[in-house]
Amino acid sequence: MDIFRVFRRAVAEAQVHLGELYLRIGSSSMAREVLVQAVHGLELLRDVRLVEAVELMAIAEDEFGRPREAVRWRERAAKLSARVIAPVV
Questions:
Q1: Could you write out the three-class secondary structure of the chain?
Q2: Helices 50-63 & 67-85, crossing angle to 10 degrees?
Q3: What is the topology classification, in CATH, of domain 3-85?
Q4: Neighbours of 6 (CB within 10 A)
Q5: Residue 57's closest CA among 86, 80, 87?
Q6: Is the pLDDT of residue 66 over 80?
Q7: What angle is formed at CA 64 by the lines to CA 80 and CA 67, rounded to 5 degrees?
Q8: Helix 28-45 and helix 50-63: axis angle, to 10°?
Q9: What local confidence, expressed as pLDDT, does residue 17 receive?
Q10: Where along the chain do its domains lie?
Q11: Which residues lie below 8 Å from residue 73, measured CB to CB, with a gap of 6+?
Q12: How far separated are the first and last CA of the chain, in Å rounded?
C-alpha cells in the first residue's frame, strides 16, 4: 500500500468522524459538506467504511429536511451493505 493511499484513507476516516460529530451537535449542513467529501474519497479507495459514510449522509439529509435525498442515500447504503456482506462464490 502506497503512502498516498494511506493518507487518503486517513483523511476520509477523519471526515467520516467529523461528519458524525457535526450530526451530534445538530449541524447537519456542515455534516453534509464533509460527508460528501468522505464518500467521494472512500469510493475512490473502495473502502468498506463507505457504507457508514453513506448511512451518515442519509441521516444528515433527513436532519437537513431533505427526506427524498435521505431515502436515496439509505437505498445506496443498503446496496453497498449487500455487496460487502455477500458471500464470494
A1: CCHHHHHHHHHHHHHHHHHHHHHHCCCHHHHHHHHHHHHHHHHHHCCCCHHHHHHHHHHHHHHCCCHHHHHHHHHHHHHHHHHHHCCCC
A2: 160
A3: 1.25.40
A4: 10
A5: 80
A6: yes
A7: 55
A8: 160
A9: 97
A10: 3-85
A11: 54, 55, 57, 58, 61
A12: 26
Give exposure, 9-46, as e/b (b: 16+ Cβ within 10 Å).
Answer: beebbebbebbbebbeeebbebbbebbebbbebbeeee
C-alpha cell at 43: 469510493
Cβ atoms of 24 and 9 closer than 8 Å: no
Place of cell 460527508: 35
- Reply yes or no on whether the pLDDT at 87 is more than 80: no
- Better-predicted residue by pLDDT, 26 or 87: 26
Task: Tell me what the pLDDT averaged over the chain comes to.
Answer: 92
User: Are the beta carbons of 67 and 61 closer than 8 angstroms?
Assistant: yes
pTM here is 0.87
Half-sphere exposure in the Cβ direction for 83 (13 Å, CA): 12
